[in-house]
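Researcher: Re-running this chain for the archive, since the previous output was lost when a drive failed. Same request as before.
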Amino acid sequence: MKPPTPGGVLRLFVAIALTGVLLWTSSPRDVARALTGVAWPPLLVAVFLVAVDRVLMAYRWLVLLRPFAGPDGPRFSAVVRIFLVSTFVGTFLPGTVGGDAVRAYALSQERVPGSAAVASVLMDRLLGMVSILMAACLGLIFARQMAEDPLVLTALAITALACAAAAALVFSPRVAVVAQRLTRWVPGAAPRASVARVLTALQTYATRRSDLANVLAGSIGVQALRILQAYCLGLSLGMVQPLTVYVAFIPLILLVMLIPVTINGLGTSQAAFVWSFGQVGVSPAVSFTLSALFLALGVLGNLPGVLLYATGGLRRRPTP
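Model: Regenerated structure tokens:
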């Protein structure tokens, strides 16, 4: 196990400190009261929606593998297994190896070239970010006051620039040529060749626009499911705000959570929930509780990966 980096320690400290301050200012007693009063029916619906979005996320990844996977490519069950294990690793073992790296490694054990595996993971991340950006822009229509917040504007700008740069790398032949030339500066012959192969694999998607449209639609569906999950959690806490409030706030909150200043959005998500839902009269205690349930729901969706990880979920299953 690798020791934690100074940056990782700092992010963890910021996450704990920010969460602690928000919990204190929200009144721990009121937060506990909100938690004990949770209604179970809408909470269980939210749990079901998490299972649906995990399957949808695995499906969109399977679509991204179509350009590289032949007849002996990974089955959907294998993709779901790898996805669940990698999300568990990314959530619970941030100090060892990232979940994306685990996904790429495990996929390479399923007769998918390593460069293609990495490219599929990167494209999956890119389209996920694009879907959040699109949903956040839609949310600003319902919550125009959020457009005045510097943190929201920063997150929007960073995400938009990152998506534009990645799209240019995939779809622009000129940018692709420049990127391939820049690989000459990568130290070491083997790493240099690996980076070049990943870039080539990424540029394969330029001719697979129907697949990309399919995955983008699935990614937008995931964002819709997350909005519905938050809405159900709000109902379980007795919140009476309409669904449009969640359409306005949740994508923007997810966008803020992408800013890598804490671990897994801990702290920043609480701050974003408390600030945004405070605009429509929700108390800090209830908003904080909603944020905690929202994060806990994501962790719950990753728990199936625990069993798979413990039972060798990364090892390739023998061909029947």
